[in-house]
Amino acid sequence: MQKLITAIILAISIISCSQDEEAAMSAKDGQYLFQNDTCTVNINLESGKMVHIWIFKNNKFVLQQLYQNGISTQGEYPNYIYEVSPIDGDPNKAIIRASFSSPTTFEATVEGSFGCSSKKIAVPLHMTFGRSDKVLDENGDGILDEAQP
């Protein structure tokens, strides 16, 4: 009888630990960065939701959008869909499908384009983002700090 009780307690503790680990897995808040030779995309997340996106092309700032201006989030960890609607009423939106491989890294697939009807901004269709504390444009002049003398 004591072995049966011990086995039940062990099974319950294993199940509860597994549930705790799943609950603890979530996207970490903060800045996520993708960067290649011509494009830098900075996405800020809070509880997995996109709250801000900045895009730099050829080291120059070309887009900033905040959640209250047309960004929506669907899904839950590890898979999210971020929609970025143009602020000029253009019905075409950019959709980012994010799949987290860890709480600080995600693969993104982009459908559509960013910007507005008069200026479309293309980004790579597939990007890997990593959590970063890198300062991109400390002086606010619209040029990446790393591209300045």
Core attributes:
Lipocalin, 9-stranded antiparallel sheet, two-stranded antiparallel sheet, about 45% strand, alpha+beta, about 150 residues, 11 strands
Walk me through this protein's architecture.
The model has no long low-confidence stretch (mean pLDDT 87). The chain has a single domain (27-135), classed as Lipocalin, CATH 2.40.128. Helices cover 15% and strands 47% of the residues. With 149 residues, it is α+β, with helices and mostly antiparallel strands. A nine-stranded antiparallel beta sheet has the order 4-3-2-1-11-8-7-6-5, with no helix packed on it. A hairpin with a 3-residue loop joins strand 1 (30-35) and strand 2 (39-46). The chain is globular.
Main sheet attributes: strand count, strand direction, barrel closure: 9 strands, antiparallel
Number of helices: 1
* CATH architecture descriptor name: Beta Barrel
CATH class: Mainly Beta
Stretches where pLDDT is under 50 for at least 5 consecutive residues are none
Calculate Rg over CA atoms.
20 Å
Helix fraction?
A: 10-25%
Residue share in β-strands: over 45%
Under CATH, the topology can be stated as: Lipocalin
In short:
With 149 residues, this protein is α+β, with helices and mostly antiparallel strands. It is built from one helix and eleven strands, in the order αβββββββββββ. It has a nine-stranded antiparallel β-sheet, with no helix packed on it. A two-stranded antiparallel sheet has the order 9-10.
